[in-house]
Amino acid sequence: MTRMIAMIAAGAVVALATGLAMNMPARAQSGAVASAITAGTVGEQADGYLGIAGSVSADVRAEVESINIKRRAAYTDLAGKRGVTVQDVAAATGCQTLSSRVKPGQAYRIGGGAWQTKGAGAIALPSYCATAN
Amino acid sequence: MKKATIITASIASLALGGCIQVKAPDKPIEINLNVKIQQEVVVKLQRDAQDLIQNNPELFPQ
Prior knowledge:
The structure holds two protein chains of two kinds.
Chain A: H1 2-39, E1 42-45, E2 50-52, H2 58-82, H3 86-101, E3 107-109, E4 116-117
Parallel strand pairs in A: 1-3
Antiparallel strand pairs in A: 1-2, 3-4
Chain B: H1 2-19, H2 34-44, H3 46-55
Signal peptide (chain A): 1-28
Keywords (chain A): Signal
Protein name (chain A): DUF1318 domain-containing protein
């Protein structure tokens, strides 16, 4: 019995350590994603997800995918609470990121269109964002 | 004279009135409501989206 508890405790410690070890590089990499956004190689899309706009390292690519998976989970959660589709939540978030988070010089994409670089003015948002602010 | 004027005026107005025709268009009128509904849903979700971004900064690096 004591042995079993000890094993469970050891398992928990290993799991915790693994979790920490896995989390730490991811945390370090999100800075790399931020740098890529600043550089315009990663950008926000109107669909509510991040996209690869230029040449990026495998690490950045993996982190972008990881962030998008987490975003989808957050969108799904909110969609369930509001009784709307995940796409609607994602699109509403896309309106927000394009209108208030993309800075001049950074890349963004609307629909299946080409990547664009934000200029000094506001991004021309899709019509469904009409009163978004 | 006055009577004749009135008669003439009423005949003229009758003739004019009779000319107005309302014709149904050949093609059926289509109103697309899907876009409107989608827009309303997205607009209502804007505040939620703002909160989501603010509460999850790690998902929205800048």
